[in-house]
Design goal:
The chain has one domain (2-117): Serine Threonine Protein Phosphatase 5, Tetratricopeptide repeat. It is elongated and about 45 Å long. It contains 6 helices and no strands. It starts with 6 loop residues before the first helix and ends with a helix. The longest helix is centred in the N-terminal third of the chain and has 35 residues, at 7-41. Helices cover 81% and strands 0% of the residues. With 118 residues, the protein is an all-alpha fold.
Length: 118
């Protein structure tokens, strides 16, 4: 809607989506934390809420994907401490696996090491 210049309608759609997500999250937080994080990191335009939900998701389901999402949101939110903490936790948990070594998180870990060596 926003791309069509219908900003009022776009805002109404975002508000409706936010109400829907909050309703779902209130009833089924663990099932929808990752989807809520994605929404708030994007159209929901609330990086703090997105990061809170991403952290809930990592605690509940500490998969590489969950860590990737939380790390990306932390970076997007400008929260370097959280991004670093999430990267370290993911590395401890998954660092020895091939899946981690092929993930975007591994590239961040490599960049972090290279920056420290410089």
């Amino acid at each position: 809607m926003a791309l069509q210049g219908k900003n009022g309608a776009a805002q109404e759609d975002v508000q409706a989506a936010q109400i829907g997500f909050e309703s779902l999250l209130k009833r089924h937080l663990l099932a929808f934390a990752d989807h809520g994080a994605e929404f708030y990191a994007g159209s929901g335009n609330d990086c703090r809420r997105a990061l809170d939900l991403a952290r809930v998701n990592v605690s509940n389901r500490p998969t590489i994907r969950a860590f990737e999402q939380a790390h990306t949101i932390a970076v997007q939110a400008g929260d370097a401490a959280s991004a670093s903490e999430l990267l370290a936790a993911a590395t401890v948990r998954w660092g020895a696996t091939r899946a981690f070594q092929l993930s975007p998180l591994a590239r961040h870990q490599l960049n972090k090491r290279e920056g420290a060596a410089a």
